[in-house]
Design goal:
The complex is a heterodimer. By secondary structure, chain A is mainly α. Chain A contains six helices and no strands. Chain A folds into two domains: about 80 residues, Four Helix Bundle (Hemerythrin (Met), subunit A); about 45 residues, no CATH class. In chain A, about 75% of the residues lie in helices and about 0% in strands. The radius of gyration of chain B is 18 Å and the shape is elongated. Classes of the chains: A mainly alpha, B mainly alpha.
Chain lengths: ~170, ~100
Amino acid sequence: MTNNQIMFFIFSAIIVVFSVLTVTSRRILRAATFLLFVLVSTAGLYFMLRFNFLAAIQLTLYAGGIVVLIIFSILLTSQVGAKLELPGLTKKIFALLAAAAGATLCIYTILQYKFPETAIISGRTNIDDIGKALVNTGKFGYALPFEVISILLLAAMIGSIVIAKKRKD
Amino acid sequence: MFEGVPLTWFLIVATLMFFIGIYGFLVRKNLITILMSLELILNSVNINFVAFNKLLYPQHLEGMFFTVFIIAVAAAEASVAIAIIINIYRRLVNIDVEKMEEMKY
């Protein structure tokens, strides 16, 4: 067993266990903390695949930004010690059935399909290439989605300020 | 195969995470926990993109850029959703999906 396989097993075990805890925990603040663990070990998987820039984005934006936003809104909207009420048994059974059926189908299809073997270029991605591709308009350039995403972020920012603002009645 | 780890292993982990997110999305009643399940779903899709990028087309960077854009969209979506949740809480003093029926009928 190589080091990479051991690392992969550790990260994937953390991901699966804490994902289950995120959706089943009855204390909402704990669920948010478990979500943080899932996101951090996903960043670990990205580091393992040598996507250092992407892992840094994952850590700062997801683990640093979104989780803090969720925890703030939990503190604003619910009592910290309060437990969530349990879902009904029928609902639980049918949700479990739907999820299990989908997961079985997908995993079966993945195991059946023969993916081609390609030679892996080891070494990390160059940060220069990422920067040049983000502002390039030619082939393999991402200038248009970059601009569209900046407009989306501006619209989301203005929208959330307007929605959450107190109204003067 | 990435130094001993085949592509299917990544895909299986992402699939499990996706359907755990679906389960949470169906079962939970609190709006914020539903949002957290949604984050799990988006994150599992990101793992898929990155694994396909590295293990099938290592000379390109498409999967990485799609993941960056998905993360940006997820951040925008989370901020708008939380603004809506706070507004609902201010009006109805709870954020349970089954008790929000003001705009029904």
